[in-house]
């Protein structure tokens, strides 16, 4: 059997890892051994934090809706319950935007 040289594949893998590690500090941007672990950890953190970001935003929307609802003398939980019973299908992101930027529209939704 003839010998297979894998130089091109090796360089391609190396280049891919170093491209992903671009902007990292110290040796993690240009040393493959350090870059591999740094890129793997960065990917793990990015995946986890995408979930945490959604969680944090939903909490913020709830705070904004609650603050606006309190000005209308109703609690957050009672407002959400009323909206569900009346069949008004608005998600928390839209309700928070309405509460923050369009308080008159939000007031009409609460009264409905």
Structural description of this entry:
The chain is mainly α and 112 residues long. It has one domain: c-terminal domain of poly(a) binding protein, CATH 1.10.1900. Helices cover 75% and strands 0% of the residues. Helix 1 runs parallel beside helix 2, helix 2 packs across helix 4 and helix 4 packs across helix 5.
How large is the radius of gyration? Answer: 25 Å
What is the CATH homology-level superfamily?
A: Ribosomal protein L20, C-terminal domain
Low-confidence runs of at least 5 consecutive residues: none
Structural class: mainly alpha
Under CATH at level 1, the class stands as Mainly Alpha
Distance between the termini: 80 Å
List how many beta strands DSSP finds.
0
What is the annotated CATH architecture? Orthogonal Bundle
Mean pLDDT score: 95
Helix share of residues? over 70%
Number of domains: 1
Query: What is the CATH topology classification name?
Result: c-terminal domain of poly(a) binding protein
Task: State the order of secondary-structure elements, H for helix, E for strand.
Answer: HHHHH
Roughly what fraction of the amino acids lie in strands?
Answer: under 5%
What does the largest sheet look like? Answer: none
The number of distinct helices, counting runs of at least 4 residues, comes to 5
Give the CA-based shape. rod-shaped
